[in-house]
Sequence to fold (347 residues):
Amino acid sequence: MRLIFDLFKLRIGLAIALTALAGAAVAPGAAGAAKIVVIALAVLVASAAAGAFNQYVEADLDRKMARTRARAFATGRLHRHAGWLALIAALCGGATAAAAWLVNPVAALYTFLGAFFYGVVYTVWLKRRTWMNIVIGGLAGSFAVLAGAAAVAPHAALEPLPLAFAWILFLWTPPHFWSLAIAYREDYAAAGVPMLPVVAGEARAARVVFASAVVLAAFSLVPIALGMGVIYAAGAAVGGALFVRAAWRLAREPGKANARASFHASLAQLSLLLVAAIADRLTCGGRCAAPSPFSPTRRSRACCCPAASRTRPAPHPSTPIARSPGVRRRWVPRRVPSPLPTPMAGA
Fold:
């Protein structure tokens, strides 16, 4: 069981599935619970297929790195053959097909693109060639957000809130992995992988991590202006502060201990942000114009969003509307109750 868990990188897959759930939560509109479950499972399975493909392709690199030399394909516990490629393709294709059939084709496209960017763009095309590998490969997490949002409605992925969260995932990935790369710089150098700390050195890479963490923390507050509530604001602020503090310590004293601390702080930051986003929509429903798909009804409940709470409620139909001086009032005829019928004579 442990072998399967590590081979398919299910720890990463579960985080990606949570990202898709957050994308569905912040998307405007409402979707059935079945569609939300299907897209989360499809993203999980597609991510697992990409993770296994990553280990299949990088078996030679994994043997050279202390952190990865115990992986199944690197040690030979699992033999590399075409059957594994067929299984990986079947998993990714099955997840994409299920999303297309049970959700919609747009959500399926984003699901496939997430796996493709990690498995092919990052692993095959970029990782051995450029230090920008993880910057471009980081789009894999962004596509998971868009897949979740598209499960609500195909056009919902292009709405401001889902796009903002996709950008947050894009900005989060580089400092997260560069923190790990600083901690294992010798491993990447021995394997010939041009990660940023190998190319630019630990000190410069640490400063880049800090600058990236500051930009990420600032941008993670943008969804508040787009309608997210106080729960999300608290999670984003606390998570951002944790990551920025750890990255600042890394920039001041580059080293393995501070790099690992920055890496774990980035995980905490993302977890807080995603859980807070889902909880915010569960309890608040966001703005009244964009109810959460997790809300029990399409009409949102009392909103705890600071921006929405400042909005003046619409007047009751029976409340007279105040008009500016000099504006002519529109005459509306009053209802006159009908007179009681007159008794007929002789009755």
